[in-house]
From TrEMBL:
InterPro entries cross-referenced by the UniProt entry: CBASS_pafABC_assoc_protein, PafC-like, PafC_HTH, WCX_dom, WYL_dom
Signal peptide limits: none
Name of this protein: Proteasome accessory factor C
Classification of source organism: Bacteria, Bacillati, Actinomycetota, Actinomycetes, Micrococcales
Segments forming domain WCX: 246-318
Residue ranges occupied by any PafC HTH domain in the UniProt entry: 12-134
Organism of origin: Compostimonas suwonensis
Record-annotated WYL domain positions: 153-220
One Pfam assignment: WYL
Length: 332
């Protein structure tokens, strides 16, 4: 004969009810059996808890419990069909809510996350978006996040990683050279708004890092990969130097140094006063500095060599020339 489960203490009953009410709110209609299986308790315990919920609430202005101050359920469904449907909630609408604009912003962010291949559990993200829609103070604005070419590339690479297949693509390296690469994809990583693939390059016969927006014509081949992530030690840094790299000295705000961690060699930055430091970085060519400087305006200044300063100055002048100059003020 099966032993009767021990009776719940008052504290346990409260914890159970605090879990049960949100669960029932998230399920418009649910059977007693399904709820019992979810919480791992007998069905009679669920029925008793539902009856207790139906006589619970918050007293109104009269300090007495009126009909509208209590939870309510669809009693016919409960008694005849063993189905639980909450028909009236109390003390729920008094909680702080997101504004419709805040909810729309969060939903837009969740839509973007759900589109990324590494976020496989899209059901959870979808349920959270539905909660935000129901729980905001007004109906959120309808928003949609447009996809990009990188989203398609990410999806293809994720497929190749999952199926352990090689990929081929045209790649434009940092020097502007075009090459066809065949790669064993090992890991996808992001830095700021850019996505990178780390993999074993069959052309270079070594681990290489590829920026996704420089790829084109990507294909997942039928060839299995020959190198796996568990068999290769990937460098801790996303960007690794090479003997052909050029060195550049920068004057940088000390607080911005963590943003340059992937570019720095082993040499330590030297304090230069007023919260700034001089740091030496390695780049494939001086034109690669343009992206770095444009992202950190006023924070990074190229100190040397003169050729690097010249490249950045010409690039800045060319950009400024695209804007019309304000007319000079006349003299009286």
């Amino acid at each position: 004969m099966a032993e009767k489960p021990p009776a719940l203490q008052a504290q346990d009953k409260l914890a159970f009810l605090l879990s049960l009410v949100p669960y029932l709110m998230d399920h418009d209609r649910v059977s007693v059996q399904a709820v019992a299986e979810h919480f791992g308790v007998p069905q009679d315990q669920i029925r008793s808890a539902v009856r207790l919920i139906a006589v619970s609430g918050v007293p109104g202005e009269t300090s007495q419990y009126q009909h509208g101050d209590l939870f309510d359920i669809a009693w016919d469904d409960f008694e005849d069909n063993d189905q639980i449907v909450l028909t009236h909630l109390v003390a729920i609408d008094d909680t702080p809510r997101f504004s419709s604009r805040e909810a729309a912003a969060l939903i837009a962010g969740l839509q973007y996350l759900s589109a990324l291949p590494e976020n496989g559990d899209r059901d959870v993200i979808g349920a959270l978006m539905a909660k935000l829609s129901r729980g905001s103070s007004g109906s959120p604005s309808q928003v949609a996040v447009a996809g990009s070419a990188s989203d398609t590339t990410l999806a293809l690479i994720r497929t190749a990683v999952d199926e352990e297949r090689q990929i081929e693509f045209e790649y434009v390296d940092s020097r502007g050279e075009h090459e066809r690469r065949r790669v064993d994809p090992l890991r996808i990583e992001s830095v700021d708004q850019d996505w990178y693939l780390r993999g074993w390059c069959h052309l270079r016969e070594a681990v290489r890092t590829f920026r996704l927006d420089r790829m084109s014509g990507l294909e997942v081949t039928g060839e299995p990969i020959t190198h796996r992530a568990g068999e290769i030690t990937l460098p801790e840094r996303l960007f690794e130097g090479s003997p052909d790299d050029l060195t550049v000295v920068l004057d940088v705000a000390a607080s911005a140094m963590p943003l340059l961690a992937d570019y720095l060699p082993d040499a330590q930055p030297v304090p230069s006063g007023k919260g700034r430091v001089e740091a030496t970085i390695r780049v494939a060519h001086y034109h690669g500095l343009k992206r770095l400087v444009s992202r950190l305006p006023g924070v990074v200044r190229v100190v040397s060599p003169p050729e690097a300063r010249r490249v950045i100055a010409e690039w800045a002048d060319a950009g400024a020339a695209q804007y019309p100059r304000a007319p000079s003020a006349g003299t009286g």
